[in-house]
Design brief:
Number of strands: 5
CATH superfamily: 5'-nuclease
Order of helices and strands: EHHEHHEHHEEH
Distance between the termini: 15 Å
Strand content: 5-15%
CATH architecture: 3-Layer(aba) Sandwich
Number of domains: 1
Helix content: 40-55%
Shape: globular
Length: 136
């Protein structure tokens, strides 16, 4: 099982340079070939970034609706206590809240593998970061 960082979806949604490998990887989650998680917080973060890039409500709705088709993707609902615990990880590893929350989610579900382009995670001892290129 994997946790998927928001930047994987954003590469696709914003048509960025790493979008094609990210798209191929996400297709494997959609088809159920791979299983993993994303948090509701990170879905909201994706939507906010899409909005900042002038994506329309319709485009955002299409993205959100597409998540329902992912047979290999589960959405983690973040509790307030998890968010409070996240603040300890922020200080411990010098991370922003967004990245620390990924760490917290992984700890709570005993996950080791994170799919992300964010190299900040390379300094976290209990996480192995992998990029889409390695999984497609």
């Amino acid at each position: 099982m994997y946790l998927i960082d928001a930047n994987i979806f954003l590469e696709v949604e914003l048509g960025q340079k790493k979008g094609e490998p990210a798209r191929k990887l996400l297709k494997r989650f959609e088809n159920g070939e791979l299983s993993g998680y994303i948090s509701d917080f990170h879905i909201d973060a994706i939507v906010i970034v899409m909005e900042n890039y002038d994506k329309t409500g319709k485009e955002i709705a299409i993205f959100l609706s597409s998540l329902l088709k992912y047979s290999g993707l589960s959405i983690i609902e973040i509790s307030l206590s998890s968010k409070i615990n996240t603040t300890k990880i922020m200080d411990m590893y010098d991370l922003d809240f967004d990245d620390a929350l990924i760490c917290q989610c992984m700890k709570e579900r005993n996950l080791k593998m994170l799919i992300s382009y964010d190299t900040h995670f390379d300094k976290i001892d209990f996480i192995e970061r992998i990029t889409p290129d390695k999984l497609i």
